[in-house]
Structures are given as C-alpha cells and as structure tokens.
Design goal:
Shape of chain B: globular
Low-confidence stretches of chain B: 1-40
CATH class of the largest domain in chain B: Alpha Beta
Strand order of the largest sheet of chain B: 6-9-5-10
Oligomer: heterodimer
Distance between the termini of chain A: 24 Å
CATH architecture of the largest domain in chain A: Orthogonal Bundle
Mean pLDDT of chain B: 88
CATH topology of the largest domain in chain A: MetI-like fold
Structural class of chain B: alpha/beta
CATH class of the largest domain in chain A: Mainly Alpha
Radius of gyration of chain A: 25 Å
CATH superfamily of the largest domain in chain B: Periplasmic binding protein-like II
Mean pLDDT of chain A: 82
Order of helices and strands of chain A: HHHHHHHHHHHHHHHH
Number of strands of chain B: 17
Helix content of chain A: over 70%
CATH architecture of the largest domain in chain B: 3-Layer(aba) Sandwich
Structural class of chain A: mainly alpha
Shape of chain A: flat
Strand content of chain A: under 5%
Number of helices of chain A: 16
CATH topology of the largest domain in chain B: D-Maltodextrin-Binding Protein, domain 2
Number of domains of chain B: 2
Helix content of chain B: 40-55%
Number of strands of chain A: 0
Largest sheet of chain A: none
Chain lengths: 312, 556
C-alpha cells in the first residue's frame, strides 16, 4: 500500500499546473479500478484467515468441529479466553518469549551493527576475509547434531543462552546493514573525526543516529524472528517451564492436528482433546504483540530497505 | 515479501528438519559402532537391587536411586513434577525419575536427536515395535533380549497371555530384540468402521457383518437418501483399505508395511499388491465407487481425517466412515451441533469380514520401552531392570498407573474398578464432577506409561460401554490373522530395500486409487502387474525371501 502511494505521487506532474494527460485518460481509470479490485481481493485473501481465526476464538468448539464458523463467531462466548488467560503454562511461555526476544534482539543488534560497521570500511585490512567468514556460514554449517553437541558441551543447554546466541547474527541482515553503512557520506565521518571523535564516538554519535531507519528495520527482523522461532528452543530446551510461546503453540496445534496420522492414532485416543477454539485463542494472543508493533515500524521498514537498495 | 526477507539463518535450519535428523541418524549409524554389549552377566552392576525379586512382588531399591527418563509432553496433559504418581512410585520403590521433557508435536525428531547425539536419558518410553530398528542398527540401544531374564513379570505375562511367538518376531537380524513392548491381554483394531447404527437398523436391517452385507446396506441407504454417498474414509482411503485388506486376505493402506505378505502355500513372501486378494478388494471398492456408494472425494482429498467427512456425517451425506474411539465423539459432537441431538446412534462396529473369513489384523503390542547403551554403565543397572519390570508389567503397577492408589482414589472388587466420587477422570468422562482429576492433577492415566500393558479387565474398566461392546464384538466374532514370520534385513539390505520399495509403493498407491475411482479400467490389471515387474519387483522379493531364509536357518 505504501509503495503504491509513493509511486502514484511520483507520477504527478511536477509543475503543479493543470492536471494533464494520463490521469484523465480512460485507460488510466480502467487501470485504477482494476488495481483497486486486485488490491481488495489480495487484502481479503490475506485478512480472511485472521478473521476466521478471530471468529473461531469466540466460537464454541462444537461449531468449529462441525465446520460452521467462517467469518462470524457461532455460539459466541469468551470462556475460552478466560480459560487460556488463566493457564499458568501460557503465561510462563509468554514471559519466556518476551525475555528471549528482548535479550536476543539486543545481543543481535549489538553484534550486527558493530560487525557491519567494521566491514563497511573499505580501507580496513582483512575486510574481505571477515566478509568471507560471515558469508561462509550462509552456505555451510555444521549440521544439527554437531551444533547440538557443541551447545551441549558449552553447558548452554536448558539456559537462556542456548536460545539467544545461536541465531544472534543473521548474515543476511549483516550484509543489508553493511551496504547501508557503505552508502553513508564518508565526509560526515571525516568531519566528526576532525572535530575530535574517535572510532566509537563516530559510530555511536554520528553513524547510529543517522541509521534509525535501518536500525528499526533490523530490530523488527530480529524481534519477529526470535518471537516466531521454535526450532532453536525445540533443540536445546528439555524443561517445559523454559519453553517459549512458539513451542507451546506448536505443541498445541501440531500435536492436535496430527491426530489423523497413524502414529498419533496409535499413540492414544485423547490426542484430539485440545479443542480448536483453544488453538485459535492461543494463536490470537500470540500474534497480538507483533500485530501492534508492525504498523509503527513499517514506515521505517519500507524507507530503510529502499534506502539501502536504491542508493546502492 | 516481508516474510521472505526475514532473517535467513533461523528458517534455513528449521525447514529440512526431518531430512536433517534422518541424515544425522545415518551419521550416528556409521560413527558409533563396535562395542557390542556381550560382556556377560558378570558385568551387570547390581547396586541397590533386590536378590529375591520375583513376579508379583513389589520392587524396592535398598537405597534411594535416580533414573533418567524421556517424557513426551501431551499438550492437554502436561507433566507436573508435583504429580502424586511420581511421589507414589518413589514411596513404593525408592526410585525417583528424572525427566527430560519433549513436546508431543515433534517427539520423534527430538528423540532421534537425543539418542544420536548420545545425550538421551537412560529410559526411552513410548516405543512402538519397529521404532527401535534404526537405533538397534546403530548400536545406540541395548539388546533387551539379553536382559529379560531379570524381568519376571514380563516373562509371566508373555506366557500367560500367549505372546511368546509375537515376542520372537521382534528379533532383528542378529537374533536379538531391542525393545520390550507393552503387553495386551487382548487387542482389537484401533481404526474400524464407524456407522450411524440407527440408520443402518431402520433402512438396511442391521449392522453388516461382511463387506457384501455392507454393500447391500449401502444400496438401500442410497435409495432412501439419494443425495448421499454413504461410505467415506477421512484418511485418503488408507485406513479403510487397511482393515478391509485383512478380510480379503491381503495387506493395504496403512497396513501395507513393506508390501509383502507371507504365502503359507509356497512358504514364501509374495507381493501383496499383485495378489488375487488385493485385486478382489480393489474390484469391490471400484464397484462401490461406480454405483455412487463411496464418497470418492474423501479418498482423494487431503484432510485431517475429521474435517470434511465429519461435516458430511453431520449433514447426513455419509453414514459410515473410518474412525477410532475418538472419531465417535467427533461425529457425535458435530451431529449435536447440527441439531440432531438424541436422534442418532453412532457406534464402532467390528471390521466386516470377507472372502478370507471374519479376519482382522493380527494381535498387537502397545508401546513399550528401550534402554540407551549408557544405561548399562549405571551402577544400579539391575535395579533399573527390576524397577522397569515392576513399573511396566506388574499387576500392582498397572492399577496404580491407571487408577491411582487403591482405597484413596479408587476401590476395586473383583474386576470392577470404581473411582471415588471426589475424584474424576475427565479424559474418559468418568465422574466429571469430581473435584480432583486423577489424570491432569495427579498424573495417573497419563499417555506415557498408563496405556502400555493392560489386562482385559483393566482395558474394560475405563472405556465407555460402547467401546467395550466393540471390543467384545471383535473378540467374539472375529479372528486375528496369524502374524507373518520375521524376515529382518541387515543394514545394507535395509538401504537396498528402501530404494526398491519406494517406486513400487508409489505405483501401487497411484494405481489402487485409479482402479477404485475408475480412472483406469480393471481390464488393465495385468498391465499394472507388469509395470511393477518392470520396477524390479522380483529383485525386491528375492531380498525379503533371502532374509527370511537366512533368519530361519540362523534362529530356527
């Protein structure tokens, strides 16, 4: 949507005179209408799952199982919300997720900004080696078991660090940030140095304040990644009171929906006991924070990524 | 777009989970080998063990001991360390269990990861027959057959319930078996036909006992409800073909296994999907589909097994479908929601018989346990064996695991178990008004241990009357098929067999469906058989029969 408005704005005649040509033509009107229709359809397709989920979260389990719930709740009730909100495990895992996200994003931001700043300096000796080191891990890694043994031997299993450290540096984010830093005017930093700032001073007082857009974008990337990550926790955590929300949810949803498979069927008759409305409520509660953060950061998100790409 | 841009590393590691774990197991397979555990009895460490431990005595360690155990966390019944069950086990046996929690959703992957990395706890519960093969080949678990002599309760019930032959069939290529299963005095198929009994009785004159009777009944129902396609299977046909195949003297669907079945006449394994029985079964279902009696959509459409079939059942478009005990509940709930409350009767019926007789699947084990190799290094290894024998197989422990403490949570007279009024077991809808749930609050009737070994009386004690009727009808009117003799493959053969079996099975699956749906005429059956032969069917059968002969020669 935002991109659309930008493009439209850019095609406006710059002289501000009479509305000329393209806007009045029939072709343009047809285009606009088609455009709107397409956007509405895409919007509806994207929103529908959310709306169904929301409707399910307020419906009775029986109605959902019978396939009666689409966009409007059937058998309206808020008891499921009460039940989930009173569930200690839900809040424990919620708290864990918040903790992992905050600590993880902080560490990730420190690592990414400093590393990216260093490798954005073309005059640095060994810069290519450093970049190569980072990029290497994009294509090759030790594999699950060696990583598991590593984390286990470092004594990080069943600690915060096992969840927070392994995904702390995303090479993709690092490269985006590097190219952003490379495009900052060199003169600004030179001026800062002439005025007496050292490397860290320049970085913290000049470069970072100028990079708010990309910083916000990266915070968003990392925060969402940490918020949604279940795999790291799945690998390295064995205590259910350390599980993040994603793992709790996965167990709730994947666990219940594998009922159909033969092995789960063999595993017992009670595996369908998690009713679909509980799943819906848990999912709604899990996405709320991200939903609220997104609109505020999206502005930076668009300009941040555009800045990096257009100027590069 | 935004999602695609998101940090790469997390997702990259996440996606190929199963592949990676499988690969990891292979690595482990080659990495850790040698050390076969043949050190003889003298190496068996016996600290805190009982000298005079025997069947039907309570095991009690002479000092407090701790064993580590894997625990799969069911979402609706999460383990609590404070559960009374752990305390009660400790009081009776001096054993405390140190649990490693794994979420139910990805339990198999995590289990594989833990065992392959050598980080697994000593005791791995919830092991079904066949699960142990990959670990046995990698020597990461102990050959239980070497140790069952220390497990008197296990021995006792294997004899009493006539399971020795089935236990022998668990042996791997080296003649040893690596897991001990949960023993069931009686076993019935978990999945069978769930029908609207009221409709069958009114319209079709009762519950069908054979597939031919079922067909006649479906014709009558279709005549009365022309909009309906009365028979469905919410599992893409795999469930129905599974229990139908036994009646036709073959194996199919979920029960297809490695695709072979033992032919008593020739004393050899033959390929199931080319057998006359298989052809007859496919023809039968093709006939149903051609006459509009089969809901073909449910045979082709991927769904979660309940979804659309449940809808159709509630709308009166389907009157018989595959399902388990839980499916009866799902269908009932949906019928209630559709305003049919009190006007219907949904029951499980014994799988119909067929040309092969009133035959159902062979008797089954239920989940048991295996021990990781490091369990042997525990100074209390003998204690562990005795403890597990008591926990899994003794009558005392079975009652404890299911119902709790006699006199406190339940009373027992003869074969009748009664939960005290202040307690409930909501997962089976028993005393729903009781204050304390012996399942979620106290840890009894849990999914990890309680289902494993059961006498008939215990199984009957907690299941709803309709299910007990189902059990009784299967046991009194059906005969379980004799199990096929073992033909265990060695590690190389396993790989070779997998390469051969996969394209064969794909051809079978695709064509079975095509024949049933009428997309391929039955007249092309011979052409289909030739297609299978072209995929080296004979080579595959030679492999299996070779293993069978070898095993027979080596182990008698």
């Amino acid at each position: 949507m935002v991109i659309m408005t930008d493009t439209l704005a850019a095609t406006k005649p710059a002289d501000g005179g009479k509305p000329a040509g393209p806007h009045d033509s029939r072709g343009y009107k047809v285009f606009t209408v088609l455009n709107m229709v397409a956007l509405v359809v895409i919007c509806a397709v994207t929103l529908y799952p959310f709306i169904t989920l929301l409707a399910q979260s307020f419906s009775s389990a029986g109605a959902i199982k019978a396939g009666l719930v689409n966009a409007v709740p059937v058998g309206f009730n808020v008891r499921t919300y009460e039940a989930v909100l009173q569930d200690g495990r839900f809040w424990t895992s919620y708290g864990n997720t918040v903790l992992y996200t905050v600590v993880g994003t902080t560490i990730a931001m420190v690592l990414t900004t400093t590393f990216a700043y260093v490798i954005s300096k073309r005059h640095l000796r060994g810069r290519n080696a450093l970049i190569g080191l980072a990029v290497f891990t994009m294509f090759f890694n030790g594999g699950i078991i060696p990583n598991y043994v590593l984390i286990s031997s470092l004594g990080m299993k069943n600690t915060l660090w096992a969840v927070v450290l392994p995904p702390a540096l995303s090479v993709f984010n690092l490269l985006v940030m590097k190219s952003f830093f490379e495009n900052l005017p060199q003169e600004l930093e030179e001026a800062a140095q002439i005025d007496g700032l050292g490397t860290f001073g320049t970085f913290i007082r000049i470069v970072l304040p100028l990079s708010k857009a990309i910083l916000a974008t990266m915070v968003l990337f990392y925060a969402v990644a940490y918020w949604n990550d279940w795999f790291t926790a799945f690998l390295y955590l064995d205590k259910s009171d350390l599980f993040p929300l994603s793992l709790f949810l996965r167990n709730l949803i994947a666990g219940a929906s594998t009922t159909a498979s033969e092995s789960a069927a063999a595993a017992g008759t009670t595996s369908a006991a998690i009713s679909p409305n509980i799943q819906a409520v848990s999912m709604i509660l899990a996405i709320i924070p991200i939903l609220f953060i997104y609109p505020f950061v999206q502005r930076y998100f668009v300009s941040g990524v555009m800045l990096g790409s257009v100027k590069g | 777009m935004k999602r695609d841009l998101r940090a790469g590393v997390l997702r990259r590691t996440g996606r190929p989970l199963t592949v990676a774990v499988a690969a990891a197991v292979l690595v482990a397979l080659t990495a850790c080998s040698s050390e076969s555990g043949d050190k003889g009895d003298s190496a068996l460490t016996d600290a805190a063990a009982m000298k005079n431990y025997a069947a039907d005595t309570t095991f009690k360690a002479s000092e407090p001991v701790k064993f580590s155990m894997l625990w799969t966390d069911w979402p609706e019944n999460p383990v609590k360390p404070s559960w009374q069950i752990f305390n009660e086990i400790k009081t009776r046996t001096n054993v405390s269990l140190e649990l490693t929690n794994i979420p139910f959703s990805d339990a198999k992957q995590k289990q594989s990861l833990l065992i392959s990395s050598g980080d697994a706890p000593q005791i791995i519960p919830l092991v079904y027959t066949g699960d142990e093969q990959q670990y046995a080949a990698a020597d990461s678990i102990l050959p239980m057959s070497d140790y069952v002599k220390y497990m008197p309760n296990f021995q006792k019930y294997v004899q009493q319930w006539d399971l020795q032959q089935m236990i022998n069939n668990l042996r791997q290529d080296d003649g040893k078996y690596y897991m001990v299963p949960g023993l069931q005095e009686v076993s019935v198929p978990t999945f069978t036909l769930v029908i609207r009994k009221d409709v069958f009785e009114q319209v079709a004159g009762g519950v069908p006992q054979t597939w031919d009777e079922l067909r006649n009944a479906l014709v009558k129902i279709k005549a009365k409800y022309p909009d309906s396609k009365p028979l469905a299977d919410g599992f893409e046909g795999a469930s129905m073909l599974n229990y139908a195949a036994h009646a036709f003297g073959t194996v199919a669907g979920w029960g297809f296994g490695n695709g072979t079945q033992f032919d008593e006449a020739s004393g050899k394994f033959v390929y199931a999907a080319t057998s006359p029985g298989y052809k007859a079964m496919v023809e039968y279902f093709h006939g149903l589909a051609a006459d509009g009696l089969l809901d073909t959509e449910s045979f082709t459409k991927k769904n979660d097994g309940s979804g659309t079939v449940t809808d159709k059942f509630a709308q009166g478009k389907v009157f018989a479908a595959s399902g388990s005990n839980g499916t009866v509940n799902d269908f009932s709930t949906a019928l209630d929601a559709a305003g049919q409350k009190g006007k219907y009767q949904v029951v499980e019926i014994a799988p119909p018989g067929g040309p092969a007789g009133q035959i159902v699947e062979p008797r089954n084990f239920w989940n048991g346990f295996m021990l990781t190799t490091k369990a042997k290094d525990d100074p209390h290894f003998l204690s562990m064996l005795q403890f597990l024998d008591w926990l899994y197989y003794s009558a005392e422990s079975r009652d404890l695991l299911r119902w709790g403490v006699e006199g406190q949570t339940y009373t027992k007279s003869g074969d009748k178990y009664t939960l005290k009024p202040e307690y409930s077991l909501k997962s089976f809808n028993i005393n729903p008004n009781g204050k304390t749930d012996i399942g979620t609050d106290l840890g009894y009737s849990n999914n990890v241990l309680s289902d494993s070994t059961e006498s008939r009386a215990l199984k009957v004690s907690y299941n709803p009357p309709a299910y007990v009727d189902y059990i009784n009808s299967v046991l009194s009117t059906r005969k379980p098929r004799a199990p096929f003799p073992p033909a265990p493959l060695n590690a190389e053969e396993l790989e070779q067999a997998a390469l051969l079996a996969t394209p064969l099975k794909d051809t079978v699956d695709t064509n079975t469906l095509k024949f049933i749906l009428g997309e391929r005429p039955m007249s092309q059956w011979d052409a289909y058989v030739n297609e299978l032969k072209g995929k080296n069917l004979q080579g595959y059968l030679d492999l299996i029969n070779g293993a069978y002969e070898r095993f027979k020669k080596k182990n008698g």
